What we know:
By secondary structure, the protein is mainly α. Helices cover 58% and strands 0% of the residues.
Amino acid sequence: MGTSGQLREVEDQLIKELEKTTIPSQQLAKKYGVSKQAIFSFIHRKGITRPKKSEKPEHREEECSICQGLLRIARKPHSDFICYQTLSEQLGLQGKELSSHLNHLRRKKLVSQKFGKLLSKRAELAYRIYFKRRLPVTTIGRRVGLKNFNSVIQRHKASGWDIPASLFKYDGNERRIRFKRKRK
């Protein structure tokens, strides 16, 4: 017997459930032993309109400990250069708990759109060194294991990140003088 045959036997009960409850189609499909697509096509064939799910209570960042922790971290200098994994570790969270809170704070513009979007812990460490020490960009990259940290910086600048100039000032003459001293 096909899926339409299976649904004919319980059609009245299914229509009642579809019109009065907000049970997801996936659960109904499991209950009646058919696919989610079969439930979906049944809804359209019969012209059934499903009730809307009740709105979730509004998320209040003043009362949420996770949001408060994120806001505390975001107030620190160069907080845009913190990766998602570090945020998760600092707040003691596992899984995907953090993403909904981050998105909520970004939507309300309480944190930068770049906050928590850095993808690499190595890049985070490299930026930490970049902001604090007077070292050439290539040296920083080598220390943290990035082959070309300069290209990472250029890519972030091109995509709108606010990256200040390096503390290290390149001076070709000074390098030549040091090189000559070493040769002597």
